[in-house]
Amino acid sequence: MLLTMNRFLVAGLLYSMTVYSAQPPSFTPPPFLSGPTISRAAFGNTFSYRGDVMYPNAALQITVSEFPPGLPHTDTTVCIEAFLVELLRADPNLFIEPSTFTLRSHDLTFDAKRWTQTTDHDMATGVVACAVRTNHFVAVNFRDSVRAAPRSFAAIRTALSNSTLP
């Protein structure tokens, strides 16, 4: 059993390194975001961008991941829920809006959910969005302070709409 699992993980790692090793093509972040920092994993990569002095709380992550074994490959709910569970672990009081909305890149349509969070110093808001490609999920997550979000989110949505994601 362990040998089979190790073979599976090594095969996944080699596959992800060949399929997902490149940066998202044609993605140009808004000027206030720097990056990406690339985090590689066995089943995909995450490209992280951080805000500058003008938008210190802004952050964007684009994750490209193989479909998890045994999960539906056409249902973005699985992808969205996975990211929301992680956010809820960090903050059990996180408010997640019940409705889903659509977010678009140049060539993908994402199902998305908004969330808000209250901290000791500020309120933050964010979006978790997922789309399905032929053989993988593409997830886009961004956040900022409630005060800056109307401006930063508009710029992020514009950058995404002009981008072809993997």
Commentary on this structure:
The chain is 28% helix and 37% strand. It is of the alpha+beta class. The protein has a single domain, classed as Mog1/PsbP, alpha/beta/alpha sandwich (Protein Transport Mog1p, Chain A, 3-Layer(aba) Sandwich), CATH 3.40.1000.10. Strands 1, 2, 3, 4, 5, 6, 7 and 8 form an 8-stranded antiparallel β-sheet that branches. The longest helix is centred in the N-terminal third of the chain and has 18 residues, at 2-19. The chain starts with a helix and ends in a 5-residue tail after the last helix.
Radius of gyration: 16 Å
Structural class of the secondary elements? Answer: alpha+beta
Beta-strand proportion: 35-45%
> What does the largest sheet look like?
8 strands, antiparallel
Instruction: Give the CA-CA distance, first to last residue.
Output: 33 Å
Spans with pLDDT under 50 lasting ≥5 residues?
1-23
Provide the residue-averaged pLDDT: 83
CATH class label: Alpha Beta
Please give the domain count: 1
* Total of DSSP H or I helical runs spanning 4+ residues: 3
Strand-and-helix sequence, N→C?
Answer: HEEEHEEEEEH
**Fourth CATH level, the homologous superfamily:** Mog1/PsbP, alpha/beta/alpha sandwich
According to CATH, what is the topology? Protein Transport Mog1p, Chain A
Approximately how much helix is present in the residues? Answer: 25-40%
Looking at how many chains there are and whether they match, the oligomeric state comes to single chain
